[in-house]
Amino acid sequence: MVYFMVRPGEAVQCGQVAASLAPCRPYLEAAGQNPSTACCDGVRNIKAITPTTADRQEACECVKSAAAKHPDINQDVASSLPGKCGVPLNIPISKNTNCAK
Q: Out of the domains of life, which is the source (predicted)?
């Protein structure tokens, strides 16, 4: 898996967020038992590239936009993804979230 690392203070790019979550799509659409290792690695990568509040808000907007483009994503499964991966991620995975909070 390729990781897109960002140095603190650099802007988070939606392409980085999308690439990190791409392995999660089958899990999010089919609601399988557990997310794949590659999926959880992607969630960990998002945590790593979002050290500041501004980074997390930007990543949140990216996730929100991507989730809105994929109507087959199960919202309940998506919101529980970080917990399933054991990653405390302060970015909601939902198309209905307020990223300013």
A: Eukaryota
The DSSP annotation for 4-28 comes to ----TTSPPPHHHHHHHHGGGHHHH
What does the DSSP 8-state code read for residue 11?
P
CA quadruple 37, 40, 46, 48: dihedral positive or negative? negative
Half-sphere exposure of 16 (CA within 13 A, CB side): 22
Q: How many CB atoms lie within 10 A of CB 84?
A: 16
Contact 93, 81 (CB under 8 A): yes
Q: What is the pLDDT of residues 25-37, one digit of tens each?
A: 999 988 667 899 9
φ/ψ (deg, to 5) at 85: -90, -5
Banded model confidence at residue 4, pLDDT cuts 50, 70, 90: very low
Give the CA diameter of the chain: 37
Q: How distant, in Å, are the alpha carbons of 4, 7, 17, 33, 37 from that of 65? A: 19, 23, 11, 25, 24
Give the position of tokens 């557990």. 34
